[in-house]
Each structure stands twice: as structure tokens, then as C-alpha cells.
From TrEMBL:
The keyword Membrane applies. GO terms for molecular function: clathrin heavy chain binding; structural molecule activity. One of its GO terms (cellular component) is clathrin coat of coated pit. InterPro entries: Clathrin_L-chain. It is found in: Cytoplasmic vesicle membrane; Membrane, Coated pit. Belongs to the clathrin light chain family. This is Clathrin light chain. It comes from Sakesphorus luctuosus. Residues 31-84 form a coiled coil. PROSITE patterns: CLATHRIN_LIGHT_CHN_2 (PS00581).
Length: 135
């Protein structure tokens, strides 16, 4: 049975003191130096951890700011594209169907960033534009 302030058994306390006193000076000195070294390492690691946390918080805030900026730009460009599309949809003239289709399709294969191969669809649309179906 031990209390918070140490062992209650008198003999255990005496034997502990005897063991510490019988320790050679070099070992006691090494133990103190080791304790100081470990405390220094702990302090350095706590300091480095705090620096990393601050750096991570700053980078996260910058990332959120960039994401918000990209989102606002995308929203603005989408709204402008939608408005232009609605305006063009209202102006329907006979014979301009293929020009409207051509505006919606990207016929430049190098500028396209799609992962799918759409070359066949592109060639079909171009051939239909050049020789429309006769009804």
C-alpha cells in the first residue's frame, strides 16, 4: 500500500535511500545529465510540434481562401455562360441549327480536356453538318 507522497513502509524508504547513496558518483552524474538531455529533447519536440501546428493552420487557411476564390470564379463564369446560352436559345432562326450545335461542341481535339475519346462523335457531327439528312 503506497500513498501519494511515497511508500509507508519505513524499511522500503530506507532501502531506497541506501540504494541511491551506494550509487557511484559517475552513475549519479550520468543519470542527472540524461534527465537534463531528455527534458531538453522534450522541450524541443514540443516547440517543433507547436511550430508545425501553426504552419498547418496557415496553410489550411490559405487553401480555403484559394478554394473560395476558385469557386467564386467558377460560379461567375457558369452564370455568364448560362445567360449567354439562354439568350442564344431565344434567337432561333431556321437554318442556324448546325451553327448552334457547333457552338456547344468543342471541335478542337487538343483543347479538349475530356478523358473519353469523342473523336467518332466529332466526325459524325462534322459529316452531318456537311451533308445533312434529307427527310
Amino acid at each position: 500500500f503506497e500513498e501519494a507522497n511515497g511508500p509507508t513502509n519505513c524499511y522500503a524508504a530506507i532501502s531506497q535511500v541506501d540504494r541511491l547513496q551506494s550509487e557511484p558518483e559517475s552513475i549519479r552524474k550520468w543519470r542527472e545529465e540524461q534527465k537534463e538531455r531528455l527534458e531538453q529533447l522534450d522541450a524541443n519536440s514540443r516547440k517543433q510540434e507547436a511550430e508545425w501546428k501553426e504552419k498547418a493552420i496557415k496553410e489550411l487557411e490559405e487553401w480555403y481562401a484559394r478554394q473560395d476564390e476558385k469557386l467564386e470564379k467558377t460560379k461567375a463564369s457558369n452564370r455568364a455562360a448560362e445567360e449567354a446560352f439562354v439568350n442564344d436559345a431565344e434567337e432561333v432562326f431556321p437554318g442556324t441549327e448546325w451553327e448552334r450545335v457547333a457552338q456547344l461542341c468543342d471541335f478542337n481535339p487538343k483543347a479538349s480536356k475530356q478523358a473519353k475519346d469523342v473523336s467518332r462523335m466529332r466526325s459524325v457531327l462534322i459529316s452531318l453538318k456537311q451533308a445533312p439528312l434529307v427527310r
